[in-house]
Amino acid sequence: MLSLRSKDFTVANVVANGREALEWIRANQADVVLMDVRMPEMDGVEATRRIIEEFPEQKIVMLTTFRDDQYVHQALNYGAVGYVLKNTPLEDLMDIIRTAKHGVVQISPDLVAGLVSRKTAPVDENHRPEWITFLSSREKEVLQLMAEGLDNRHIAEKLYIAPQTVKNHVSQIYEKIGTRDRMEAVRLVRDLGKDLRVL
Length: 199
Known about the structure:
The chain is an alpha/beta fold. It has helices spanning 2-5, 18-27, 44-54, 69-78, 90-100, 109-116, 137-147, 152-159, 163-177, 182-192, and strands spanning 32-36, 59-64, 82-85, 106-107.
């Protein structure tokens, strides 16, 4: 589907398991590896660990039907730059792959809630983090919707703005709060325990 629906993708190869993926990457190059999680011989999480150990700059996006937090955390800890569900719409998947090429972490909205629910100590209600003061009203809206699990396309639809405008806002948000990680940005908002739009 990626080859048929997109003019800027070339599917270099398809392999059957993590071992073959590792062997192929050793002999070839790919901008992004789309890695299944559960495979015979060597699963995708272990393959991700080994590939990034040997090739730290390799971008890997995990593709799975499972919402298992353990797999998500392991893959991200090993250096995966994306973790998406197989029911992700194709257009969204293509956007995720394009973004992953530049090293920006992308996670399916359905997985975000489980990841950020593992909170540390709650933030003092009287404490207002300094980064909030740097955000415009629109950026607060966008970041709040990100925290509610919406992806860029759905944020655009909700705010009646162009998807590219949302991407621009997200880039500005990352710069202002000091991260390039969507999950970390969402966690900051969740830890506040308040709606950014009223702060």
